């Protein structure tokens, strides 16, 4: 039996579609047009997305993982090279480095922003002179930008390419400049639950550099400029017309949807600023787009269970850091001491967050958490 008062953790897509009849019309246009892969909808979406970001080029690809992989290949990164990123991220960030044949070197995150700590970055580069470190991937986790001004200045000093992982940060910015326009390249995902999500897999590589854009474009389709003639080795990572046409409609509402996420975050902030919880941090002059609203509690597992028992869906992004996962613990390199990463994973909890949460739903989640705290954090 379904519970009508249940509050799911992520965006219910069926609701979204019901509110946007334009999506149905766009799908019909593709079905009657007869082009299904890399056609006019993809070209139009690439232009519109680049213009939304304030970037010169966007290249549609098959997923966020593929966008990272294609970006790494466009930089010429391959076997024997090392790439720095964080351990507190989706496994896809590290999987993409390995897809390119490179070695991941994982560093700690800053304890407040949960994004790559620029101080650790510099230490990691200096501590590993024998590694051929070619690039770094800062992840704008949960929708909060990594400290790009500082990261870019470290990268410049050590001559490293920077690929931003923007999979969770569509529309986020620093000083009004959007994530995806700070590094040499950026990778976006359009997985359905992202702030800009398709109805299937999709991704984009973004850059201002025409040479990198050309290399990424060649790589995504077998190195073809002319059909069936491979100029360079490549792969198949293409965005399809149905996803592109859906994304074109949803892009028009991205600012509005992000503003709603920010409103939900403000309501949570005002209800939950109590000493027993750590709430999401937003650095001054940074714009957070709240892909997730992540709180911290030392008794996270009990709180999660309590909310679940009251039909409130929560998630943990991510319960095990990459350097401790069975598939990676013996393979990835780490810069010693990922203390912030290891502590965060024990305490984080993602509350329900999407643009269609009502203020009554947010109040219900907030009230439940406050009642749980009252019961469970009584002074002894
Ligand atoms: C930070 C981050 N990077 C990369 C990816 C990979 O994106 P995709 O699922 O589209 O391959 C994800 C997916 O959730 C992610 O959260």
Biggest sheet descriptor: 8 strands, mixed
CATH class call of the largest domain: Alpha Beta
Question: What small molecules are bound in this structure?
Answer: pyridoxal-5'-phosphate
Extract low-pLDDT stretches: none
Q: Kindly state the mean pLDDT as a whole number?
A: 94
Structural class: alpha/beta
Strands, total number: 15
- Whole-number count of domains: 2
Q: From the 3D coordinates, which CATH architecture of the largest domain would you assign? A: 3-Layer(aba) Sandwich
Find the CATH topology of the largest domain: Aspartate Aminotransferase, domain 2
Strand content: 15-25%
Helix content range: 40-55%
Shape: globular
Query: In what order do the strands lie side by side in the largest sheet?
Result: 1-9-8-5-4-2-3-14
**H-E order:** HHHEHEHEHEHEEEEEHEEHHEEHEHEH
> What is the CA-CA span between the terminal residues?
41 Å
Number of helices: 13
Radius of gyration: 21 Å
Provide the CATH superfamily of the largest domain. Answer: Type I PLP-dependent aspartate aminotransferase-like (Major domain)
How would you describe this structure in keywords?
Aspartate Aminotransferase, domain 2; alpha/beta; 40% helix; globular; 13 helices; 8-stranded mixed β-sheet; 380 residues; 15% strand; binds pyridoxal-5'-phosphate; Aspartate Aminotransferase, domain 1; single chain
What features would you describe in this structure?
α2 (21-33) packs antiparallel against α9 and α10 runs parallel beside α13 (359-376). The chain has 13 helices and 15 strands. The protein has 380 residues and is of the alpha/beta class. It has helices at residues 13-19, 21-33, 40-53, 64-74, 91-99, 118-127, 148-157, 210-220, 241-251, 254-272, 300-309, 339-347, 359-376; strands at residues 57-61, 81-86, 103-107, 132-136, 161-165, 173-174, 177-178, 185-189, 203-207, 224-226, 229-230, 286-287, 293-296, 333-334, 348-351. The chain has two domains: 13-107 and 116-251, Aspartate Aminotransferase, domain 2; 254-376, Aspartate Aminotransferase, domain 1 (Alpha-Beta Complex). Strands 1-9-8-5-4-2-3-14 form an eight-stranded mixed beta sheet, with helices on both faces. The structure holds pyridoxal-5'-phosphate (PLP). Pyridoxal-5'-phosphate binds at residues 63-65, 89-90, 92-93, 139, 165, 167-168, 189, 191, 201, 203.
């Amino acid at each position: 039996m379904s519970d009508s008062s249940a509050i799911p953790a992520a965006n219910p897509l069926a609701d979204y579609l019901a509110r946007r009849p334009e999506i149905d019309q766009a799908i019909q246009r593709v079905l009657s047009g007869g082009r299904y892969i890399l056609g006019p909808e993809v070209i139009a979406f690439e232009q519109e997305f680049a213009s939304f970001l304030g970037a010169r080029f966007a290249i549609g690809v098959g997923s966020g993982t593929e966008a990272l992989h294609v970006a790494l290949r466009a930089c010429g990164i391959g076997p024997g090279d090392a790439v720095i990123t964080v351990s507190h991220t989706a496994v896809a960030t590290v999987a993409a480095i390995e897809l390119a044949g490179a070695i991941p070197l994982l560093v700690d995150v800053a304890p407040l922003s949960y994004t790559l700590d620029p101080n650790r970055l510099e230490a990691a580069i200096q501590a590993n002179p024998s590694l051929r470190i070619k690039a770094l991937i800062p992840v704008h986790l949960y929708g909060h930008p990594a400290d790009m001004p500082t990261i870019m200045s470290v990268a410049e000093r050590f001559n490293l390419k920077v690929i931003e992982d923007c999979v969770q940060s569509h529309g986020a910015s620093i000083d009004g400049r959007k994530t995806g326009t700070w590094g040499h390249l950026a990778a976006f995902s359009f997985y359905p639950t992202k702030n800009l999500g398709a109805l299937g897999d999709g991704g984009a590589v973004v850059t201002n550099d025409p040479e990198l854009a050309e290399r990424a474009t060649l790589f995504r389709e077998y190195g073809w400029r002319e059909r069936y003639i491979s100029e360079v080795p490549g792969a198949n990572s293409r965005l399809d017309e149905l996803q592109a046409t859906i994304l074109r409609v949803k892009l028009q509402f991205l600012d509005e949807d992000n503003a709603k996420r920010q409103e939900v975050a403000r309501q949570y902030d005002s209800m939950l600023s109590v000493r027993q919880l750590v709430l999401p941090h937003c650095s001054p002059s940074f714009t957070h787009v709240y892909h997730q609203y992540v709180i911290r509690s030392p008794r996270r597992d009990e709180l999660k269970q309590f909310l679940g028992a009251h039909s409130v869906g929560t998630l943990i992004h991510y319960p095990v850091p990459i350097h401790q996962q069975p598939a990676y613990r013996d393979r990835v390199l780490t810069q010693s001491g990922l203390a912030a990463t290891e502590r965060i994973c024990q305490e984080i909890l993602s509350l329900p967050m999407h643009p269609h949460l009502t203020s009554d739903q947010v109040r219900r989640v907030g009230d439940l958490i406050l009642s749980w705290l009252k019961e469970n954090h009584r002074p002894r």
